[in-house]
Design brief:
alpha/beta, 15 strands
Length: about 400
């Protein structure tokens, strides 16, 4: 049996967010095939603490504001001391410092750079693009992105012409199928939700890019038409206090609004919540391949999300739910009201009583990890020869309302 590959995951901070959840899944699912280490630029984070408790080494590199040349040296020291073979850098800044470690300190590890979400507006300086094209891309042994939107950004904006898509996915085994009406009522009772009340939920960290402010403005419109409906906000983050203030401010002119918005904090029963609610919603101004959207679709939950980033690569307009313009609280409210008031319409955007039929190569974490593990093995011995996967096809399963990406090769 091959010895475990020593992999260092380079992150900003291991907070509860998409890329960080993905790293945890990689570590858990590859198991003894890798020997993982986490290198955080800024802080440990909630997921980091959990991984440390399970025995995964974690080092904080204490990045200073601005350009911190010492980060590359400190990273190189950890790589050499722990004999790390592969650095898997998630997002651009962690990659930049990993590449700097190779350039300035002869850091021996190979580098796999994975891009996730993008800023909005997505603008980078000509100096950065030039540095990527002329110099830094040479230190990225492979460059991947979690959706076609982010891949195109790497090609056209960042200057990484060889980047390719290695799609995100969710593990269907961890997301039970939506039950019948009686099972849904039992689930709601267990969660402390009212049995007959319409529910929408947003599951996302409280960060500006998720634009909860637009969601709350949209929900103000929903509440005017459906005062009995409830919005569940699942997550945590730096914007929570101002979002609570926004809700309180609306309550002053719209009685009962505050009761219609419930902050649930970070939860570990997200699959249950998704099976219990009527509509999932996400109002990001920029998004890559949202894991919560994939989880909602796997849970047969109708969705209303912004038409940004990779959302349109997953959700078919009018079939799996609705795409609405970013920052448009009126369009958002209109589609939420439509689905919350017309339960039959909401059900028609789901899968019906059965789950989506598995594609020949379903994009689930265990399938996504195979090419990743293959790349890691090749990195650990010689420069990799992993080729980009065949172009992703987007074919709906006949007779089913929700779909999952499939590819002709993993």
């Amino acid at each position: 049996m091959p010895s475990p590959i020593k992999v260092g995951f380079v992150m900003h901070v291991m907070q509860v967010a998409g890329a960080e959840v993905l790293v945890r899944q990689i570590i858990e699912q590859l198991g003894d095939k890798i020997s993982p280490t986490i290198l955080c630029l800024d802080a440990v984070g909630t997921i980091g603490e959990q991984l440390m408790q399970s025995g995964v080494p974690l080092t904080v590199l204490d990045r200073k504001p601005g350009m911190d040349w010492g980060v590359a040296k400190r990273m190189s020291d950890v790589v050499k001391a722990q004999q790390i073979q592969v650095l898997h850098a998630h997002q651009y800044t962690p990659f930049f410092y990993a590449a700097l470690g190779r350039l300035r300190h002869r850091m021996p590890a190979k580098i796999l750079f994975t891009e996730h979400g993008r800023h909005y507006p997505d603008i980078v300086s000509w100096k950065r693009r030039w540095a990527n094209k002329v110099l830094l891309q040479r230190y990225a042994d492979k460059v991947t992105a979690c959706c076609d939107f982010s891949t195109q950004a790497l090609h056209k904006i960042e200057g990484f012409p060889k980047a390719f898509t290695l799609a995100n996915g969710v593990d269907m085994a961890e997301l039970p199928a939506r039950g019948d009406e009686q099972q849904t009522r039992e689930l709601r009772s267990r969660l402390g939700l009212d049995l007959d009340r319409p529910y929408a939920a947003c599951i996302a960290r409280f960060h500006a890019v998720k634009d909860h402010a637009t969601l709350i403005r949209g929900w103000q419109r929903v509440h005017q038409q459906l005062p009995e409906a409830r919005l569940l906000l699942v997550g945590g983050g730096e914007e929570e206090s101002q979002l609570r203030e926004q809700v309180t401010g609306i309550e002053k002119s719209q009685a009962g609004f505050q009761d219609s918005v419930q902050f649930l904090g970070i939860r570990h029963d997200v699959p249950d919540i998704l099976r219990a609610i009527d509509v999932f919603t996400l109002t990001s101004v920029s998004e890559a391949a949202s894991l919560t959207l994939l989880e909602a679709m796997a849970s047969q939950c109708a969705s209303v999300v912004t038409a940004v980033g990779g959302n349109g690569e997953h959700l078919r307009q009018g079939t799996d739910g609705y795409l609405v313009p970013r920052a448009d609280d009126q369009a958002l409210a209109s589609k939420l009201v439509e689905l919350l008031t017309n339960k039959q319409k909401a059900k028609s955007t789901k899968n019906g009583p059965q789950r989506p039929r598995a594609s020949p190569n379903p994009v689930q974490p265990q399938h996504r990890r195979r090419p990743l593990l293959s790349a890691l093995r090749k990195f650990s011995s010689e420069y990799p020869t992993l080729n980009p996967p065949a172009r992703t096809r987007r074919e709906p399963v006949p007779g089913k309302g929700s779909r999952f990406l499939s590819a002709t090769s993993p």
